[in-house]
Every structure is written in structure tokens, then in C-alpha cells.
Amino acid sequence: MIREIENCMKSHGWNDSASILIGLSGGADSVALTHSLNALSKKYGFRLYAAHVHHGLRGETADRDENFSKCFAESLGIRFFSLRSDVRKIAAESGISEELAGRQVRYDFFERLCNEYSIERIATAHHKNDNAETILMNFMRGSGISGLCGIPYERGRIIRPLLDVRRDQIEKYCDENGLEYVTDETNMENIYTRNKIRHILIPEIEKLFNPSFIDTVTKNAVILNSDEDYLLKECENAYKSCVDGKKADTVKLGGLHNAILTRVIRKMVDETCGKADVPSSVINSIAEMVRKNITGGRIDVARGIYARIEYNRLIFDEYTEECADFEYELEIGAEKYIPELGYTVSVEKADVREKDGCEYFTVPDGALIKMRNRRGGDKFVPLGMKGTKKLKDFMIDEKIPRNDRSRVGILTIDENIAWIVGYRRDDRYKFKKNGIKIKIIY
User: Fold this and answer.
1) What angle do CA 413, 415, 418 make, to 5 degrees?
2) Whole-model pTM above 0.85?
3) d(CA 196, CA 191)
4) What beta strand segments (E) does 250-312 contain?
5) Domain-located, residue 354
6) Residues 31 and 180 in one domain
7) Domain presence at residue 52
8) For residue 29, what is the domain's CATH number?
């Protein structure tokens, strides 16, 4: 097993590490990792540290694990750090699962130690079986290629020297070296998805279909990693070409292959929402909206963020509180910035309709043109219809969020609604031979 770890360290250039912090839970995996890295440190000269997190979830057994980890690290002459945290409370306050909260607490602690003690790398004890379980979990959740690539060997400072090692090798190593370890009793309970995969699904697959299933799955992950690496490079090129901050050119996006389009959208979501766990179904819905270039289309994303399309642009915005009534008079031949809407309105005379991204309207001579937000009792005649429709009913039909309705621009001509900006024009002011053209400038 040490040979497997050494080969992994060499192939990724980790053997030249000056210092490594090991995540030591006290279980067989982390004990074997700590013991083997301690042996390799004598050959390569890197300094070792160990860190343990007490999550405050398992009472006396968690106290036992913390004490065992401390004694084991110190028996090898490795400096030991420990953190006690109320993960259940953190999860409740953050609205996330205890598993995710625990993970965040651990890695925040590890990063803090690295910064404080100038530690170069963090080693975790994820192994080949963990990788296969993760891949199966992601597959059943409907993950794309990225999820089927499994656990990466390296991410930032984090390295995983055991990823080429199976669990049975780890247990054999502990037995041969007389290493004691603790067992988390929750790992044996088949109430968790991962445990069901570990104790039920994989053994049945190995028994009935492929005795080398763990190796097969992880070899496939290597192939998929190569494919994903290429696609991500293509995504980066497309992102630079199409995206400007929280906005993207829908015409350029629509010309991308779906494999690249969905990755560009995913990257925009990550940049906007901070790597929120947004389902692939939402990403695919946004991609479909982009391909159809549906002006006024909106899709909820996450954390109060929604995606919308206006004037050939995919835009990510935050829902905001309703704003107060506003109204601005517009002059032909001039531009007017509307602060509540965040854009400028340009009004010009027009005799012929052109394909220039503007909206055209017929207006009476000397007409009073304004831009405002909604008012109680507003009605209009939707383009292509004869009867009137309440603006409130229209906004409900269009699924415009309640808090967002007061921030939809309403163009009026002589106090009548002529255009619900980004959504629908009024039939009474449809362009014929002459009139005005309106351009929205972001």
C-alpha cells in the first residue's frame, strides 16, 4: 500500500511537499494514511501535522475518537490540532444539511491551520471505494460528466494519496502493522444513501455482475476526467467570448453546442450564486430559454437569483423589494436614464422599421410619452387582440414575481399603456409607416 501511495505522490508531484496536514478522524482510512505518510516523510523529508474535528453529534463516542486521534498522532511525533464544533446548530442556522455543515467546518479549520502555520498541503483519506460510491451516488442523482468523474486527486491545497488504494488494502495494512483504529457506528447504519451503496448495492454488483467493479468504475472515471478537462477548456473559451459579468449574448450562446452551452450557464450560475447546488434541470431550462431567445423569459435559479432574457441578453438578477411609484417624461430625440430600472431609454423619430433591436410605435403628433411603473387598475390591449386585459392579470400569467412587478417598465402614450417593456406591446400603437422607435440601453 505504501508503494501505491508513493507512486501517487510522485505522479502528482506531492513528494516534494515541505509540509502536509492530515485530516485524522481516527478511522482505519485516516490512521493508515497517517502511518504511511509518516514512513514516507523519513524518505522525502516533509513535515507532518494532524487535525481532528469533533462535530458535537455523537456524544461520548466522538470524545473517544478525539482522544484516540490525539494519542495516535503524538505516538508518531506528529503535532496534533483539534476543533470542537456544534455542527447541528450551524446546519440549522445556515439551512443546510449536517453533512454539508460538517464538511464546511472541517475544511475551514484545515485551511485556517495551513494559513497560520504555513502548511503547504492538506491530505485526506478518501480511497478507491469512496470514489466508486461517490460516482454511483452522482449517477443516481442525475449528475452530468463532472459528477461521474468522481473525487479529484487534487483540489487547491487538498490532496488524496489513497485514491488508488482499495478499502481491503487499507484494512490489511492496519492488521499487518498492528494499527488500532476507531469505528464510527453511523457508518454501519443503512439509513444513509452512501451506506446503502457501500453495504448493499456494490456487493451485489460484485457478486452478480463484475467482481472488479470498484476498479472498473474508477478506471472509467479517469477517461471521463480527460473528456471533462477538454470540455471545460472549450467552455472557458466560449465564456470569454459570450459573457460580460452577469450578462451574456444569447445569439452567441445559441450557436454553441449544448455540451458547451450548459457549462457556460453553469459557470455563470456559480459566479452569480457562489457555487450553489443548482439542479441540472434548472441549467437545462435556462439553456432552452436561451436557444429560443425568449424575450421576457424568467427562471428562478437559487438564493433569490433569477435568470431572464432581454434584448438578446441572458441576465442574472436578484429579486428586490418593491420600489415606489415613479414616472418620467420622455422627449423625442433625447435619452433618459431611469434609475429604478437601471437602464436608459432612447426615443427617436422613425419612418421605416429596421432590424436594429428597437421597438417601433405609431404615435399621434404632440403625444405625451412617459416611462413609469405599474398602477392600480392598469389595462392594455395586448398586441394581436381586440379586448383589454388587466395588467395585474397579465403579470400573473407571465409568472412575474410579485416583488419584481413594480420594477417592470411601462411605456405610456397619452397616459395609455403602449408597451410592457420586455414583455408585450399594445395593439393600438403598433407601427405602420411612421412614428417613433424606442431603444433600451443597459
Assistant:
1) 40
2) no
3) 7
4) 298-302, 305-309
5) yes
6) yes
7) yes
8) 3.40.50.620
Domain count, the chain: 3
Return the bridge partners of 81, or none: 51
Per-residue pLDDT of the chain (442 residues; tens, 9 = 90+): 999 999 999 999 999 999 999 999 999 999 999 999 999 999 999 999 999 999 988 889 999 999 999 999 999 999 999 999 999 999 888 888 888 889 999 999 999 999 999 999 999 999 999 999 999 998 988 777 888 999 999 999 999 999 999 999 999 999 999 999 998 776 666 767 888 999 999 999 999 999 999 999 999 999 999 999 999 999 999 999 999 988 999 999 999 999 999 999 999 998 887 766 787 888 999 999 999 887 777 788 876 788 888 878 899 887 766 788 999 999 999 999 999 888 999 999 999 998 888 999 999 989 999 999 999 999 999 999 989 999 999 998 887 867 688 989 999 999 999 999 989 999 999 998 889 999 999 8
Which domain covers residue 345, as residue numbers? 327-441
- Residue 282 sits at φ, ψ, to 5 deg, of -70, -45
Q: How many angstroms separate the most distant Cα atoms in the chain?
A: 96
